[in-house]
Amino acid sequence: MARHPIRVILLCKWAKMNLSDHSHQHFHSVRRPVIALGVDYADGEIIAPHHHKHDQLLYGLTGVVMATTPQGAWMMPPQRGMWIPAGIVHEVRTLGDVKMRSLYLDPTITQGMPTHCQVVGISAFMRNLLEEAATLPPEYDQDGRGGALMNLIRFELELLPPIPLSLPLPAHKGLAQQCHSFLREPDANMTIDHWCDELAMSRRTFTRLFRRETGLSFVAWRQQACILAALPRLAQGDAITTIALDLGYDNPAAFSAMFKRILGSTPSLYRS
Questions:
Q1: Tens of pLDDT along 32-64?
Q2: Dihedral of the alpha carbons of 225, 228, 230, 233, in degrees to the nearest 10
Q3: What is Dmax (Cα atoms) for the chain?
Q4: CATH superfamily of domain region 169-270
Q5: pTM, full prediction
Q6: What burial class does residue 200 get, using C-beta atoms within 10 Å of its C-beta: 0-12 exposed, 13-18 middle, 19+ buried?
Q7: Ranges for all domains in the chain classified under CATH 2.60.120.280
């Protein structure tokens, strides 16, 4: 990016100014199948619920990004990406200072990509492509270097590995209240019986309802919620032992084993 400092700064300012209009009207006049933007966000910024006519790939160099929809929440740690299909209403929150790179793609060229939100891995090669793409003007030469770069990105999109960093949320009012309460104060020792008592349900009714509403067992959902609670703290450098104990685990080894079983890597790889 240092090769074109003025152009990058102007493009980032243009993007930040226009991103306040979440209908993205400014894209309608840009006749390109892929547009890349670079925008920096401060800690705690909230982008109100909105949707795009374009498919979107987010990539954060720093910080953590959480996207929520009526169906659930997705959390993007640093150096990972998030796929958001066109038309999905979502709210975005930043946890820590976020250096964002975004791709906006015409849905006609993204056949085979997920039709739901998905956190994905970003290879070193893809990171370099996204960094370079963010230096291009929106109306780049499709027959020149810019077009070739964007075409390469389109091929690489299909190779992005999914990462299970989502948390489905139920539509059932009482169950949703319990889930949101848990997210405010996650506890790895919370039991089904406690929630059954809170909701005045039998254990059998509760387990059937919970799986029907979320697609997960209670234990699997609880573990996933604890991971999402841990990620922002890992990203800001908190000690793994402190995080594990705060979440109710008896020791950091138990927390790390659960974390690795679900994400395939240890918590230390997610620490800044």
A1: 999 999 889 999 999 999 999 999 999 999 999
A2: -150
A3: 65
A4: Homeodomain-like (1.10.10.60)
A5: 0.83
A6: exposed
A7: 5-163
